[in-house]
């Protein structure tokens, strides 16, 4: 059954900022690197995703015809951390269809793989996930579902307005909330609507979006630094495995010279990260981003680490972005308020809270330059590696005895 009515992706800016920031480092520092990505669905869909293959292939064909307009390039040039030569490269950029393949898996699901130079392969992920989500929910969407999504969004805004009014009587720091929902969104149109409503209703709380296109169109801050794939790539870039995190952080520092200073901590877990995050990096980075494990424990570890280095935690930022909703963000804000700065990125609970279970889909880097790579985060369900031998070796090197 074919339900396609329009192009799902109409702009190459309709992705997360960290795709651009990571790609810039790749282009400047290891442009010849190759990577392989694999798609995975972590929950059980209401119907087999393999049924979407024909429509997905058509959308990928359309995606690979897109290029950046001069207006889009001008917007990228306006971001001070985006370099002119990178924008010049993007002026010639097209995603190449030959680097991505789709198959119907044995279980009826989708087998999607990207194999190619990282300067191409890294850019597919968010588009693919957004397309699969929208195709999937096109078959399930009803007027009642959209009404339920709007009702829930209205409740969220009311909760934020209530919190804002309560905070006006205190001298606490601001609650900073951002949209991180591109990859799991119900649809492009719904995503655009909800970000616009949040920005209009709670501008003092809503600090921006990871989606570059929406940031451009709404005049809000585009938010993002690095993702797991950036640090994972260094597992295959020829540095000693024990040193891959330090090599990745150093490459970031050399590229951005003080901009984009939030580091992701959980590629091999928070404890192993902090062993590498010494005084040098702790002073150079503005803060840390949480993406797995208990967020309260993680934040307390971060505060203790800064104190041990004789850095005032109040000068640093913790960004939380793992499975959050509004109430959890407020709870975390109150827990850490006055001790360390906090900000919050909410994904699925904003962009796909429609009363129907959202897809838990990911597309992860599994090899770089022909070498297996892995992430070993603090949440066991998020482990993804195609080579168990390498995963065991990674555990040994970083002394990770659990997960």
From TrEMBL:
Keyword Nucleotide-binding assigned: no
Occurrences of domain Nicotinate phosphoribosyltransferase N-terminal (ranges): 13-133
UniProt keyword Ligase, yes or no: yes
Domain Nicotinate/nicotinamide phosphoribosyltransferase: 177-401
InterPro entries noted in UniProt: N/Namide_PRibTrfase, NAPRTase_N, Nic_PRibTrfase, Nic_PRibTrfase-Fam, Nicotinate_pribotase-like_C
EC number, UniProt record: 6.3.4.21
Top-level enzyme category: ligase
Keywords assigned by UniProt, alphabetized: Glycosyltransferase, Ligase, Phosphoprotein, Pyridine nucleotide biosynthesis, Transferase
Post-translational modification remark: Transiently phosphorylated on a His residue during the reaction cycle. Phosphorylation strongly increases the affinity for substrates and increases the rate of nicotinate D-ribonucleotide production. Dephosphorylation regenerates the low-affinity form of the enzyme, leading to product release.
Gene Ontology MF: a single term: glycosyltransferase activity
Associated pathway: Cofactor biosynthesis; NAD(+) biosynthesis; nicotinate D-ribonucleotide from nicotinate: step 1/1
Catalytic activity: 5-phospho-alpha-D-ribose 1-diphosphate + nicotinate + ATP + H2O = nicotinate beta-D-ribonucleotide + ADP + phosphate + diphosphate
Phosphohistidine sites (modified residues): 228
Family of this protein: Belongs to the NAPRTase family.
Entry function: Catalyzes the synthesis of beta-nicotinate D-ribonucleotide from nicotinate and 5-phospho-D-ribose 1-phosphate at the expense of ATP.
NCBIfam families assigned to the protein according to its UniProt record, in alphabetical order: NAPRTase, PRK05321.1
Name this protein carries in UniProt: Nicotinate phosphoribosyltransferase
Naturally occurring in which organism (per UniProt): Crenobacter oryzisoli
Encoding gene per record: pncB
């Amino acid at each position: 059954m074919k339900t396609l009515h329009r192009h799902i992706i109409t702009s190459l800016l309709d992705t997360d900022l960290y795709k651009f920031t990571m790609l810039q480092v790749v282009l400047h520092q290891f442009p010849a690197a190759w990577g392989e990505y694999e798609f995975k669905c972590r929950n059980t869909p209401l119907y087999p995703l393999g049924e979407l293959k024909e429509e997905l292939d058509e959308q990928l064909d359309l995606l690979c015809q897109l290029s950046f307009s001069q207006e889009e390039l001008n917007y990228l040039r306006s971001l001070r951390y985006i370099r002119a030569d990178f924008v010049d490269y993007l002026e010639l950029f097209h995603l190449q269809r030959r680097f991505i393949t789709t198959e119907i898996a044995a279980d009826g699901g989708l087998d999607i793989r990207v194999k190619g130079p990282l300067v191409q392969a890294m850019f597919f992920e968010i588009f693919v996930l957004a397309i699969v989500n929208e195709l999937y929910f096109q078959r399930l969407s009803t007027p009642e579902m959209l009404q339920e999504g709007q009702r829930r969004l209205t409740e969220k805004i009311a909760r934020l307005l209530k919190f804002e009014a309560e905070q006006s009587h205190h001298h606490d720091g601001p609650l900073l909330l951002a949209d991180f929902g591109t990859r799991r969104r119900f649809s492009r149109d719904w995503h655009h609507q909800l970000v616009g409503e949040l920005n209009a209703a709670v501008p003092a709380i809503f600090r921006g979006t990871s989606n570059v296109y929406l940031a451009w169109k709404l005049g809000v801050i585009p938010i993002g630094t690095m993702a797991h794939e950036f640090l994972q790539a260094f597992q295959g870039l020829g540095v000693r495995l024990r040193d891959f995190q330090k090599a990745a952080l150093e490459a970031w520092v050399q590229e951005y010279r003080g901009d984009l200073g939030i580091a992701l901590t959980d590629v091999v877990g928070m404890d192993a990260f902090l062993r590498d995050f010494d005084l040098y990096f702790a002073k150079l980075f503005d803060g840390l981003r949480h993406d797995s494990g208990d967020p309260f424990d993680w934040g307390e570890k971060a505060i203790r680490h800064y104190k041990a280095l004789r850095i005032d935690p109040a000068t640093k930022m913790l960004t939380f972005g793992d499975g959050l909703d509004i109430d959890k963000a407020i709870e975390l804000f109150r827990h850490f308020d006055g001790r360390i700065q906090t900000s919050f990125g909410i994904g699925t609970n904003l962009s796909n809270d429609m009363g129907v279970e959202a897809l838990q889909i990911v597309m992860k880097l599994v090899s770089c330059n022909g070498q297996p790579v892995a992430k070993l985060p603090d949440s066991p369900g998020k482990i993804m590696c195609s080579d168990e031998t390498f995963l065991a070796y990674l555990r040994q090197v970083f002394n990770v005895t659990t997960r």
